[in-house]
Predict the 3D structure of the following.
Amino acid sequence: MDANGSDAIGRAVEALRCARAVVAITGAGMSAESGVPTFRGSGGLWRTFRPEDLATPRAFARDPALVWEWYLWRRGRIAAARPNAGHVALAQMERRFAAFTLLTQNVDGLHLDAGSRNLVELHGNIWRARCTEEPRRVFDQRGDTPGEELPRCPCGALLRPDVVWFGEPLDPVALDRAAAAVRACDVLLVIGTSAVVYPVASLPSLARHGQALVVEINVDETPLTSEADIVVRGPSGAILPQLERLL
């Protein structure tokens, strides 16, 4: 593991300059810098709501109106957020490399707003809804005005938020795409994630098995810190633009 500070940034820039394929994984810490409340840590949403009460299939089956009320409240909070300088830097990095894949655990859509296109939203997107009977039927609800009735698919079935709830597996297509990108990358950037939520937390090990260099960018120490090749301690909104400028 490298030390913090300018030496770590210099080594990260050197590795990126030599890389053909780069993958970035982003977590809640990155969105928190844009003012999006996190689920974990001080000030997180879970201080008010328990996940088992609202973010599970069982909760939706028991009280879909309550779950939708909470997600509409979350959308209202997220609507006020804007991509920060770190989001923009990743979108700019995408254009620099022959292969660049962005994997995000965030559901707020800020990477799309910043201009990232080769993006895998591993946990879904809060602005979308999908049919409870035909999950492949997905609807963009950004800009929709909530009505008094629960949202329904044209087929008549209830819609649910298009996000991965606790107890649900990740979309296998998205996970396979993520794993393939990580196996093929030269540098893996792990940004603002607690590195405790599986299976995403296993991706750095997969990268290292493929001889990729793992760079952690985070304000806090995580379970990944001792395993990372380079650790840059600081907010992604400051570190990522610096890396992008130095490339």
Observations:
- The chain has a mean pLDDT of 92.
- The two ends are 22 Å apart (CA to CA).
